[in-house]
């Protein structure tokens, strides 16, 4: 493979928090830990690593593909090599944090993420680069669920709702603003520098986390479900490979069918293993006896699948078919961080009072409207009259949904499963994006007018996914409302 080079062209009912220990790990009366603002800062810095790298490469895909002379399926794996282990192992990361210490897992995850980022920036071949991306995903699976679980352990009552809302808003802002920064780097420097941004963020998170974040755990929890993790990862990997190969080639060959069948068999084996392990499973199936929990899981998968597809295809289309510079394509997504940052904390407090049903019903309707407006986007259309209205509508819908969804999912479990709940919430969201990216090969392989037509087809699929997610929330949540402890 060609080495990378310079490119200047287009382009979640929580009772009381967990007991904490350590020098700074004592809790205040009422359950709030010392140094709450610093704890929130560390959790935001840690999770922002995964949020940023989950989206920053979207505007760099054309440049990376040219640097490594990558085919369409290989370009898809630039995204999915990171998303696959992140999705499959988030649940294990949350469970391991509950048992071995959430701060410990988070800090080790940050360190692994930083080391893998350095390897991404210096990888001489696509194979090494994709391996480093997978290691980033593993680090993300360690730090993501434990950062949210640490927040749940460190805050109580209304302060918890505010902290979760702020965490969600800043994370979404970092993930959506990342394409702007990434695009500027692609246009003005070299895309490997994108990964070096992670190093000072990781260093700050480790230093502050080691000094100020209290340790919390659930020592009575059974050992992590290694068998479930292995089966789940293998199943998701086989299914993702099959869908990626099918979408890129536009046909089902023998190898793709074998991979698809293996993925389904492994998924059934995963469900059997989880059923046998019971409450100690990576995904305790008893949690799905709750209708609201099932509804929230389906909702998350559908809505974030639609959003993940948009975040990938829109910048790619603007760069390749619309002639946008990479930085301009990244700037096209700026309404997302601005609107979500303003709306999420307010919606988190409102949903704690009225319940999540109406926010999670109305938010996706706006998202669907945004996807419908995206049908007006073409090669020669104005940003302000075509791209901006679509992005703004999607942003407003997500701002309504993000914080209520996170709080509602966490409200559905006991404290002993808070790591599992946060991991499941994140895994399902990223699983939706993983499948969406795997299915978009047919779009990414096109050029010019065909690429725009493919984008419009993806937008119509986004409309359908958002509408079904809205109906799911309305039908399954009913009078469900987070308990006062989660506000």
Task: Explain how this protein is built.
The protein has 487 residues and is mainly alpha-helical. The chain folds into two domains: 390 residues, Growth Hormone, Chain: A (Up-down Bundle); 56 residues. It is 74% helix and 1% strand. It contains 18 helices and two strands. The chain has a two-stranded antiparallel sheet. α1 crosses α6 and α3 packs antiparallel against α9.
Notable features of this structure?
18 helices, mainly alpha, 487 residues, 2 domains, single chain, disordered N terminus, two-stranded antiparallel ribbon, 2 strands, Growth Hormone, Chain: A
Fold-level CATH name of the largest domain: Growth Hormone, Chain: A
Indicate how many domains the architecture comprises: 2
Please identify, by name, the CATH architecture of the largest domain.
Up-down Bundle
- Cα shape: globular
Could you estimate the helical fraction of the residues in percent? over 70%
The CATH H-level superfamily of the largest domain is MFS general substrate transporter like domains
- How many helices? The count is 18
Sheet with the most strands: spatial strand order: 1-2
* N-end to C-end Cα span: 52 Å
Largest sheet: 2 strands, antiparallel
């Amino acid at each position: 493979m060609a080495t990378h080079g310079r490119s200047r062209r287009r382009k979640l009912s929580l009772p009381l928090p967990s007991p904490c220990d350590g020098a700074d790990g004592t809790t205040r009366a009422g359950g709030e830990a010392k140094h709450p603002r610093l704890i929130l800062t560390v959790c935001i810095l840690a999770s922002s690593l995964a949020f940023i790298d989950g989206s920053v490469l979207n505007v760099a895909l054309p440049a990376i593909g040219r640097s490594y002379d990558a085919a369409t399926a290989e370009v898809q794996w630039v995204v999915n090599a990171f998303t696959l282990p992140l999705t499959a192992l988030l649940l294990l990361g949350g469970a391991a944090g509950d048992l071995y210490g959430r701060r410990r897992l988070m800090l080790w995850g940050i360190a692994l993420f930083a080391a893998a980022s350095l390897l991404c920036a210096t990888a001489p071949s696509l194979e090494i680069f994709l391996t480093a991306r997978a290691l980033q995903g593993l680090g993300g699976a360690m730090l993501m669920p434990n950062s949210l679980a640490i927040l749940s352990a460190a805050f109580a009552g209304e302060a918890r709702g505010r902290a979760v809302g702020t965490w969600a808003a800043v994370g979404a802002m970092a993930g959506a603003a990342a394409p702007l920064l990434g695009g500027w780097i692609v246009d003005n420097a070299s895309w490997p520098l994108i990964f070096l941004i992670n190093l000072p963020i990781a260093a700050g998170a480790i230093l502050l986390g080691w000094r100020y974040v209290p340790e919390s755990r659930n020592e009575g929890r059974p050992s992590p479900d290694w068998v479930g993790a292995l089966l789940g990862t293998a199943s998701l990997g086989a299914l993702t490979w099959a869908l990626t190969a099918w979408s890129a080639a536009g046909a089902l060959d023998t190898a793709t069918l074998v991979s698809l069948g293996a993925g389904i068999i492994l998924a059934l084996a995963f469900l059997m293993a989880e059923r046998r392990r019971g409450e100690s499973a990576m995904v305790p199936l008893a949690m799905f006896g709750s209708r609201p929990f099932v509804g929230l899981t389906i909702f998350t998968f559908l809505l974030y699948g639609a959003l993940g597809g948009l975040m990938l295809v829109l910048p790619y289309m603007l760069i390749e078919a619309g002639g946008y510079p990479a930085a301009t394509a990244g700037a096209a997504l700026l309404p997302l961080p601005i609107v979500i940052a303003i709306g999420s904390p307010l919606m988190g407090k409102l949903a704690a009072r009225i319940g999540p049903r109406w926010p999670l019903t109305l938010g996706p309707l706006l998202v669907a409207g945004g996807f419908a407006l995206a049908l007006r986007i073409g090669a020669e259309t104005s940003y302000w009259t075509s791209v901006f209205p679509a992005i703004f509508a999607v942003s407003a819908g997500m701002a309504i949904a993000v914080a209520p969804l996170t709080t509602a999912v966490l409200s559905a479990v006991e404290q002993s499963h808070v790591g599992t709940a946060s991991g499941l919430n994140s895994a399902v969201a990223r699983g939706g994006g993983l499948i969406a990216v795997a299915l978009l090969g047919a779009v990414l392989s096109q050029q010019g007018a065909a690429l725009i037509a493919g984008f419009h087809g993806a937008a119509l699929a986004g409309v359908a996914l958002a509408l079904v997610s809205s109906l799911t929330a309305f039908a399954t949540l009913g009078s469900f409302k987070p308990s006062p402890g989660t506000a």
